Amino acid sequence: MQSHDIVIIGGGPAGLAAAEAAYDAGARDILILERDVRLGGILNQCIHNGFGLHTFGEELTGPEYAERYINMVEERGIRYKLRTIVADIDENKRVTYVNGEEGAVTVQAKAIILAMGCRERPRGALGLPGYRPAGIFTAGTAQRLMNIEGYLVGRRVFVLGSGDIGLIMARRMTLEGATVCGVAELMPYSGGLNRNIVQCLNDYNIPLKLSHTVTMIHGKERVTGVTISEVDGNRRPIPGTEEYYDCDTLLLSCGLLPENELSKSAGIELDRVTGGPVVNDRLQCSVPGVFACGNVLHVHDLVDFVSEEAERAGKNAAHYVAEGEGSDGEATVLKAGPGVRYTVPQTLDAGLMDESVKVRFRVSDVYRDRSVSLYYDGRLISKRKKRIMAPGEMEELILKKSSFDRPVSEIRIAVED
């Protein structure tokens, strides 16, 4: 059986950044496994700009951003396999992959980095009534068909869901000559970044209807229209609020799901809110030597944050290979208090943590002029006022090692008045 120090599953932005950081931290025997025909992942179809401001200090398109990291990987001589599907990983860090050249191969890894990204929530998970006509696409599928394959997927389009990909595709379809009739969002707030609401909808006079959903898809062979309705506080359609839109295409942008089927097969504990692995401050999962980063861990707003997080995972995986796991005491649990949906990481080791640890979290509603409060075992440590917070924008909080003047069993982050 072949063996490698670090096997990285996924050659998208997370996998590339993790590989680069692991190499720079001293690891040399690194293998990236990527199922697509090229490295770069989802970035290859994201031809709009807005990437790289945090990482490179300039505005890049998705392919340009990916190319920067692909060049880093190739300059370091890091090995990668394309058109390679990982079929299984187990709790002993054995990875089984399949490709056309080698067939089925099992390799032993000293450490694994999970960087499989996420997938879109499909129509079947939404329970939309109507037939199954042509013209219904997830926003990401439409993006690939347009930007890589060169197909215009429709002429009159309606978008269900206000995730960032859907907002960006509303603008993209408009620029290609299609008419975007509107965007309906089930929640009373947008699921995407505010800048995308402004740049992709407002700038093109595309209406956004909050607290609305599609209640009927019309057409048998091809979509001929959709009916949308307003929903109440329990997200149930309100009779008498129906509106009909004549369209030939429905794009679905109703959330992203971390791709964790492989994580389950390895017995890795998953967080019921994020859908990704439960990790400590080193981004290590419940199985020692397995690390997770990027959208497989939790869905990010910006690829720059994915790269930053992946570099932490890569560095820590390299240290694990060189030094082993190590532990300096009981784990401290991070908990989401009132107004907070989740935190990443979910635990930390105050004895082994870096001088500072970045905790990312999302709030559960739109809050104005509220404070983010930090508690150690019920003791208020800090309180920071925020003008506005929304579920579509990820928040962060820095924990300082110097703040642990005594053992702490629980850290809680809450939104308060």
Q: How would you characterize the overall build of this protein?
A:
The protein has 417 residues and is α/β, with parallel strands linked by helices. It folds into 3 domains: 1-120 and 255-326, 3-Layer(bba) Sandwich (FAD/NAD(P)-binding domain); 122-254, FAD/NAD(P)-binding domain (3-Layer(bba) Sandwich), CATH 3.50.50; 329-417, Immunoglobulin-like. Helix content is 20%, strand content 34%. It contains 7 helices and 25 strands. The strands form 6 sheets. Strands 1, 2, 3, 4, 5, 6 and 17 form a 7-stranded mixed β-sheet that branches. Strand 22 (367-376) and strand 23 (379-389) form a beta hairpin.
Quick structural overview:
The chain has 417 residues and is α/β, with parallel strands linked by helices.
Write the layout of secondary structure elements.
Layout: E1 2-9, H1 13-24, E2 30-33, H2 62-75, E3 79-81, E4 85-89, E5 94-99, E6 103-114, E7 118-120, E8 136-138, H3 139-149, E9 156-160, H4 164-175, E10 179-185, H5 194-201, E11 208-210, E12 212-218, E13 225-230, E14 243-246, E15 249-252, E16 256-258, H6 261-265, E17 290-292, H7 303-323, E18 332-336, E19 340-344, E20 347-348, E21 356-363, E22 367-376, E23 379-389, E24 395-400, E25 410-416
Helix pairs in contact: 1-2, 1-7, 3-4, 4-5
List keywords for this structure.
FAD/NAD(P)-binding domain, 5-stranded parallel sheet, alpha/beta, 417 residues, 25 strands, Immunoglobulin-like
Shape: globular
By DSSP, the count of extended strands is 25
- Structural class, by secondary structure, is alpha/beta
**Gyration radius, rounded:** 22 Å
Q: CATH architecture of the largest domain, please?
A: 3-Layer(bba) Sandwich
Please bin the fraction of helical residues. Answer: 10-25%
Looking at this structure, what is the CATH superfamily of the largest domain? FAD/NAD(P)-binding domain
Query: How many structural domains in the coordinates?
Result: 3
